[in-house]
Amino acid sequence: MSIAPAQKQVFPPLHGPWPATAPWGRQWIGPGRPASIVTVASVAGAAAIAALSLPLDRAGVGWLVTAIAAMAAVFIADVAKTRGPQPLVTHRRGNVRTEQLAWALATVALLAVGTFRSAGWLYALCVVVATLTAALALAGGRSMRSIFVAYTMPYIAAFRAVPWLARGLPRKGNVRILTTALVSAVLLLAFGSLLASADARFATALERLVPDLGVDTVFRWIFLGGFTAMAVGGAAFLRVAPPDLSKLDRTEGRKVHRWEWAVPLSLLTALFAAFVAVQMINTEMQGYASEARSGFWQLSWVVGLTLLVLAGAARWAPRQGRTDRLLIRIVLGALTALTLVIAATAIQRIVLYTNEYGLTRLRLLVFCCELWFVFVLLLVLIAGRRIRAPWLPRVAIAAGVGALIALAVANPDGMIAERNAQPNGDRPIDLSYLGDLSPDAVPALTKADGLTEEQLLCVLGRLNTGLVTTSDDWRSWSLGRQQARVLIATHGNPTFDCTPLTSGR
């Protein structure tokens, strides 16, 4: 009687069949084996930290703590790769790893803005941009096609990571793990209660660290913990089995005939040339703010849409023959140069409009976007020398991320307050708008020479509401709000009362 040899354990596939029409084809098969127990533990730890520290109603240091915990969990998962079947493509060049590390650090820097700035609009913009930098850190991407695919992959990986993490859980040790967690909770609760009752200072510190265990808090923990577990698990899934997007970078895609793109873009170039000529002829009208008010929005849209047109031309215009390359340099070069002139006109009108009507958040953002447009257009002109420029999308995104971080460092609400607190001819200071700014504006307001003491108290009283009067715990602590509280307190914590200024305004 023969004994059959022991069969090697074969894990069922962790992925479904991907259609060949998917953007990444069949080259992203996922990890060959279930997640290691170290990976599962790191993802669970990041989810627990997020549930305990992430504030949803405001920016604060809890966002930075969560970002660092998630980054550490993904790094641990990358280091703790299990041996066995690996993805089809595992080779990575050193410079690719360096770029992905730079994108990861940029993501942490963007999420750290809430620790220093309290402006909600600014932090919301940082969080949106952080989703792009995080996708580039996880999946890479060099061309516009691969960057778009890379941006969608973390959302897909979040769902694919659920069975991958579930199969990595130990089957026999589940009861022991639950028992250990239960015993730990009982010990902490019992001895923590005794120590809190024995010392009032320890009880106060414990109350600040541990929130009230109400029903809403428990549901908040479940929601944040589950969402973070999926997000960090998907990031670990991508790091353990990174997709190969190089094929998307190498393929040119379908091209059109040279006249199909050259004729429409030549006509558009002629239209831009006519507009620039009219602007040069009617120079006497360019100094009026009324004209600037009616034009800079339209010009900003023109510049932004032209960038999309240039990207489409770079994608579909053929470049094999000498004639094709010459057309690209002439037509796209002329269109880019004229668009630079239009962008300069838009910037001039924004400056005129701001000088006349004051600085607002929207106008500041549009001004920064126009400067970024100009930088990208200059990159397009530089790329036109060699026709191909695989570095351009990444450099343009990096410039945008750097500009946003620089804007956060410059404190935009403080810049607006400093600018608008100065009298401008017969135009009165808009105290209502100053009072609607975030607490980041308080340091600039207290130093403004254009505000009288009554006006300053009026604005500070309007700001001394909401998030400023509500104390922060360690999760939602922000340097901007803390500085605002201290400065407002030195002026007696005024309330909103502008009645003495009714006649003066």
From TrEMBL:
InterPro entries: DUF4153 (IPR025291). Signal peptide: none annotated. It comes from the Bacteria. It holds the Pfam family DUF4153. Keywords: Membrane, Transmembrane, Transmembrane helix. The chain crosses the membrane at residues 35-54, 60-80, 101-116, 122-141, 177-198, 218-240, 261-281, 296-314, 326-352, 364-384, 391-410. This is DUF4173 domain-containing protein. It comes from Paractinoplanes bogorensis.
